[in-house]
């Protein structure tokens, strides 16, 4: 018998009864791919209970070897025409059963990816995060985290946006509505639906607030263990888009959908003892512990090497701009939002906030990178540099890569990445970057047409 994470998640026993009673007729079996998207199958519920539960289902291993448009591409060792594009197994995690309120009589369960020889697929994002969780567990620690994810809402449907080539869309707010009760209220029917459905899907919803870009909003969730947070994050992104579509609107988590403020994904993280004890804060001195300082130092020391996991798309790097609340400097500060690492909280609430990732980040990869960096800092007792005071934008601190190509090169040559994730994983995601860079380099953009069609 598995145990639910909270009273709204379902046990296997409850799933069997819901299917037998006719309350549920569809089960989505899903995993998160390299791009951070849920992929999988819609199974008839009776078939799921009788044949898939306890055994898993199979799907083509090309799902971890395609580009964003689902084209098969060369260069991946895991999957190719030469190897015949074989199957991998979706191993059902029975702790992840949840209702899908935006679809009728539907449940979802999330999966780990295994080879047909029953070995974990190492480049699966969920496997990569679990590897870092196991590293922490060897020290007697667990990681807890929360993600703050922004999106921009448009009055256009996704179909209309596609037909318009995503130009001339109408944002749901016409001015900066950061913290505006009026601004959020204008979009509240949609925000309320998303909050309510996510709560019913097993998440602990905190709040919604307006942001700076036109039509930009954020819905926050309570922190949890890192795997639960990443699982919830993936379900939330897919669900929010489906709910918007049902409302005749669209929303995007793109890092930089236009020339205004981008969509961020601030990630809060801390380590705790397996007994939930606080290890980042010394109650006697009321200060950070040396272990916490080493962890922060490790995240900073690996931030340039791991930028590809924080900013995984060409568009991600358009968000890095001075004075934009998106960081550019590899620096930390106490409650300083100009730094890539913002240190906040005391006691049990002591945590670091990584402000580098955008709304397009893959939560499993970003969290795996943070944990790998932090554990590297602890295991090597890296000293923490002095904190940044004032604006990090105006400082002489080192900066993260400003292009995907630069981030790709840093990741490819990183000995720390090879040690933390394995060389085959590094090679896999370097190829992912190569594919995206080649596709972008071959594209003719609107910017080129506007500047050159008549004037050159």
Topology:
Elements: H1 12-20, E1 26-32, E2 38-44, H2 45-52, E3 57-60, E4 87-92, E5 98-99, E6 106-114, H3 125-138, E7 141-154, H4 158-163, H5 181-186, H6 188-200, E8 205-210, E9 216-221, E10 224-225, H7 226-246, E11 250-252, E12 265-273, E13 281-282, E14 287-288, H8 290-302, H9 307-310, E15 332-334, E16 341-344, E17 351-354, H10 363-379, H11 404-412, H12 415-421, H13 423-442, H14 446-452
Parallel strand pairs: 1-6, 15-16
Antiparallel strand pairs: 1-2, 3-4, 4-6, 5-6, 7-9, 7-10, 7-11, 7-12, 8-9, 12-17, 13-14, 16-17
Sheet of most strands? 9 strands, mixed
The total beta strand count reads 17
Helix fraction bin = 25-40%
**Helix/sheet category:** alpha+beta
CATH topology of the largest domain: Creatine Kinase, Chain A, domain 2
What CATH architecture of the largest domain would you give? 2-Layer Sandwich
Report the mean per-residue pLDDT as an integer: 95
N-end to C-end Cα span: 69 Å
Number of individual domains: 2
- Assigned CATH superfamily of the largest domain: Glutamine synthetase/guanido kinase, catalytic domain
Q: Low-confidence parts lasting 5 or more residues at pLDDT below 50? A: none
Strand content: 15-25%
Number of helices: 14
Instruction: Please report the first level of CATH classification, the CATH class of the largest domain.
Output: Alpha Beta
CA-based shape: globular
Radius of gyration: 22 Å
């Amino acid at each position: 018998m598995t145990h639910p994470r909270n009273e709204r998640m379902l046990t296997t026993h409850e799933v069997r009864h819901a299917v037998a009673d006719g309350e549920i007729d569809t089960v989505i079996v899903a995993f998160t791919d390299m791009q951070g998207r849920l992929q999988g199958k819609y199974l008839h519920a009776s078939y799921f209970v009788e044949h898939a539960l306890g055994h898993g289902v199979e799907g083509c291993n090309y799902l971890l070897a395609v580009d964003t448009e689902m084209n098969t591409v060369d260069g991946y060792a895991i999957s190719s025409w030469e190897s015949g594009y074989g199957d991998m197994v979706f191993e059902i995690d029975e702790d992840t059963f949840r209702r899908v309120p935006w679809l009728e009589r539907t449940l979802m369960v999330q999966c780990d990816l295994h080879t047909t020889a029953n070995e974990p697929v190492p480049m699966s994002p969920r496997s990569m995060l679990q590897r870092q969780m196991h590293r922490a567990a060897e020290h007697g620690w667990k990681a807890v985290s929360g993600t703050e994810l922004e999106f921009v809402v448009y009055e256009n449907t996704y179909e209309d946006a596609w037909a318009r080539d995503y130009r001339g869309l109408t944002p749901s707010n016409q001015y900066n509505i950061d913290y505006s009760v009026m601004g959020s209220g204008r979009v509240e029917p949609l925000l309320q639906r998303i909050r309510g459905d996510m709560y019913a899907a097993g998440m602990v919803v905190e709040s919604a607030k307006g942001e700076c870009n036109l039509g930009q909003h954020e819905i926050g969730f309570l922190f949890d263990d890192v795997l639960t947070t990443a699982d919830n994050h993936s379900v939330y992104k897919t669900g929010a888009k489906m709910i918007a579509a049902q409302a005749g609107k669209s929303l995007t988590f793109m890092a930089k959908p236009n020339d205004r403020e981008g969509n961020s994904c601030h990630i809060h993280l801390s380590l705790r003892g397996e007994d939930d004890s606080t290890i980042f804060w010394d109650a006697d001195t009321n200060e950070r512990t040396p272990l916490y300082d080493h962890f922060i130092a490790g995240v900073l020391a690996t931030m340039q090497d791991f930028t590809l996991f924080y900013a995984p798309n060409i568009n991600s790097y358009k968000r890095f701009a001075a004075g934009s609340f998106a960081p550019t400097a590899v620096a930390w500060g106490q409650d300083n939002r100009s730094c890539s690492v913002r240190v906040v909280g005391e006691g049990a609430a002591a945590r670091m906030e990584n402000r580098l990732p955008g709304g397009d980040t893959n939560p499993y990869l970003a969290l795996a990178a943070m944990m790998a960096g932090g554990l590297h800092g602890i295991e090597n007792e890296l000293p923490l540099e002095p904190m940044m005071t004032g604006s990090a934008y105006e400082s002489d601190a080192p900066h993260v890569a400003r292009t995907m190509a630069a981030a790709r090169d840093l990741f490819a040559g990183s000995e720390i990445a090879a040690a933390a994730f394995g060389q085959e994983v590094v090679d896999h995601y370097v190829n992912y970057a190569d594919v995206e860079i080649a596709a972008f380099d071959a594209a003719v953009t609107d910017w080129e047409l506007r500047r050159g069609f008549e004037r050159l």
